[in-house]
Design goal:
Length: about 300
């Protein structure tokens, strides 16, 4: 990884009922903010929120949503890849993506390169609550990890609620990720947003760029922005407010692990990846990959499964 300036852009989706026109409007708005951020900061990697083309809550079922979506890669990705090519940047954005069969919808994150190609696509592996089609929602979960080598560094992709699951970010890091992009539409609390973003950065000694939505989606859910850029020692080097806009930071990998805490005279002397107890992991691999649930009752009377 080399020195690079990055940005997280937070935008509000249209709260109107979802149509081809609102999708086109959301795309135009997002790309305008991307262009502004690059002009102002010189960012070479820009991350947009989760489902930036539609808003997170579509207020419709999977089949109706599938009918509105464009092919990916193809017409659904072209405005983003075209802008990445024109600006010469790497661009990450979240969007619902149609599967081959009607009603199969993935919550996806795409990475475009400065040549205008789609370098990688990731399907969210941990749908949030009622988003999951298995719970009556609209999203089919993925089961693979996406880590892409680029000329600025190796980039891994996770999406919003994925950040609650340490195993996914650890797999990204073990596969070589130096930067994890976390496009999000997180609405639970700013505390949980910061906690999970900083923890995944520190767990794995990676940079995490969390771009969170703001505004209100078609289902009426509000989002608080607060986009974050976090270093491998869990320092928040950029923090958004609740407004549309961007945050940016210059990442300097040769200095990222130099000190125990930011600005400290105490050097950082351990590496969470290198010092894993691999024998322990091997001994409990079956348990780690097996079912489990909290022993404590959940709110609303639901029990873990």
């Amino acid at each position: 990884m080399r020195d690079v300036t990055v940005a997280a852009v937070q935008v509000a989706p249209s709260s109107a009922p979802l149509t081809p026109e609102t999708i086109a409007g959301n795309t135009e708005r997002a790309l305008t903010w991307v262009e502004r951020s690059v002009e102002a900061t010189g960012a070479e990697l820009v991350v947009l929120p989760e489902t930036v083309t539609t808003g997170f809550g579509p207020a419709m079922g999977a089949e109706e949503l599938w009918d509105l979506l464009q092919a990916s890669p193809g017409a659904g990705t072209a405005p983003y890849t075209d802008l990445a090519r024109r600006l010469g940047i790497h661009l990450v954005w979240g969007a619902y993506e149609p599967g081959e069969e009607r009603g199969v919808v993935y919550n996806s994150a795409h990475l475009a390169g400065p040549d205008g190609s789609v370098l990688g696509t990731y399907h969210k592996t941990h749908p949030f609550g009622t988003e999951d089609i298995e719970r009556g929602g609209w999203v089919t979960k993925g089961d693979t990890v996406t880590v892409v080598e680029t000329e600025i560094g190796t980039i891994g992709l996770i999406i919003c609620f994925d950040g609650d699951y340490p195993e996914l970010s650890r797999i990204n890091a073990v596969k070589g990720a130096e930067i994890i992009a976390r496009p999000s539409a997180l609405l639970r609390s700013a505390d949980l947003w910061e906690l999970t973003t900083r923890a995944r950065a520190y767990d794995n000694h990676v940079y995490v760029i969390g771009a969170n939505a703001t505004g209100v989606d078609p289902a009426g859910a509000p989002y608080f922005g607060n986009s974050l850029i976090v270093t491998p020692i869990a320092e928040v080097v950029a923090r958004g407010a609740s407004h549309e806009g961007w945050v940016s930071a210059a990442l300097k990998p040769q200095q990222a692990m130099a000190t125990l805490t930011p600005g400290s005279s105490v050097p950082q002397k351990w590496d969470h990846l290198d010092e894993r107890n691999l024998a322990l992991l091997a001994n409990y691999a079956e348990e780690l990959a097996g079912p489990a649930n909290t022993p404590f009752p959940l709110g609303g009377g639901r029990v873990g499964s």
